[in-house]
Amino acid sequence: MKKLPLAIAACLALAANSANAEVRINGFASIVAGKSLDSEQTIYGYDDDISFKNESIFALQLSADLQESLTATAQIVARGSNDFDAEFEWAYLTYEFTDELQLSAGKMRVPFYRYSDFLDVGYAYRWVRPPETVYGLPFSTYEGLSLLYTSQIGDWDSTVQVIYGSSEASIDAISNEALDESELESIAGVNWSVSYDWFSARVAYLVAETTINVSSAEEGGAGFNSLVDTLVASGLSAQADELLIEEDDGAFFGIGFSIDYNDILFDTEYTQFEVKNSILAEQKQYYVSLGYRLDDVIVHVTYENDEDKHDASRYNQIASVPTLNAFFNGALDSSRDKAEVYTIGTRYDFHPSAALKVDYSHVKNNLAQTDVDVVSVAVDLVF
Description:
This protein has four helices and 16 strands. By secondary structure, the protein is mainly β.
């Protein structure tokens, strides 16, 4: 269903009420072109044909000061990957108790990463896209509450955020081409950021009750559901539960720091994600990135590492039934991954509100023994 009429209606409604509220409209956009240099490999959604649609985005953010410490914020995003249908990415109210303490309620970004709040704003970072191995979780927004407290600890700026809520999304988890319906209930988390002069650091921890209903529309999902049904029919319900993702405990941990000293830029983040007692492997990933600023130009290199695997103790749970044991182990192996990414790139701020970026990435899958290169060019702007 087209979401654009709803977006236009929201803009008109805010404009109609401008006499009672100060409304500010900002926007951002990214025009991104990319191409895989391997005719048989697809990466980041690109094949060997140049595409301008896959990662391009256009967005408007509307903020209304409703007076008496209350504000309303909405962000409307149109993505090329979704045929540029406009949707509400954010929609929330914020009440400021004091200059240091504020409470927000509505649909907001899950604060997994350093750049979570600016994830779609390409102008906010130096890459064409943030490092995918770390920033690749399919969950991005939630509906709930956010309590934000800013303060000074000596000479350090400190920000603590506590969140609670839930999320529903259609994601590519198991079924390959098909989308699986996911639910995150009782999302609770905290993240703490500190900064002083040229140094900043951040740590985050979140938990959620996780459910993913695997689609049967594609081969991967159909095979998974068939295996679960076979295990149950064979009296192996406990082993079936070890694969299903139904109200399982999920946990996310992330830590990172950055340096912006003179013209030297350094960023690193490490994240770990796990849904216990499920087919999903524990995921550990990190990146390190070094950049150097030359007036309006930044050159950078980035290394990413991703390793998803199950603990060895999870295998061979039904060794007494060799055929089922092999399928069970195969299901666990299907979620394994081990990859490295090497990226070199440059950013040129050719305009006060626009930047031109070029990235070249070499992606190495150490399990599939495949290598693929991708070139991406982007123009990012804010207005």
